[in-house]
Amino acid sequence: MEETNLLRGKQKHYLRAQAHSLRPIFSVGKNGLNETWLDQLTGALEKRELIKINLQQSAEVTVADTKAYIEGNTDIQVVQTIGRVLVLYRPATDADNQRFSPVVEDM
What SMART domains does the record point to (predicted)? Predict the structure, then answer.
């Protein structure tokens, strides 16, 4: 895992605003958190840079557990948590997929 720069307040505010209209595309269910799930998150973030995930009612982990697991095992940053929904950000490595990161870097 590589070390990433933590987002500053202005950057998080921008990303939260951009994520407002997004729908969660991943969920955490009774199968919990694992490497395969993290790989899928990373792949989705490579294409989108900003996604929402939600914890299903059947999930045996908390939002705090999920946030700690993601941030502890990847370079993905949790921008915001709202109830059982987490907003995740990771700059894309492919320039064609960089929709938010150029703006975030300039802030």
Answer: CRS1_YhbY
| 46 vs 31: CA distance, rounded Å | 24
Order of strands, sheet of 85-89, starting from the edge strand that comes earlier in the sequence: 26-28, 50-55, 85-89, 77-82
Evaluate if residue 17 carries a pLDDT over 70.
yes
* Residue 29: C-alpha distances to residues 19, 24, 43, 55 (Å): 22, 13, 19, 6
pLDDT tens readout for residues 67-90: 999 999 999 999 999 999 999 999
Task: State whether residue 80 is helix, strand or coil.
Answer: strand
| Bridge partners, 54 (sequence order) | 27, 85
Domain boundaries, the chain: 9-91
- Report the alpha-carbon distance of residue 107 to residue 99 in Å, rounded: 14
> Phi first, then psi: what are they for 52, rounded to 5°?
-115, 145
What local confidence, expressed as pLDDT, does residue 30 receive?
84
CATH class of 9-91: alpha beta
Q: Model pTM? A: 0.92
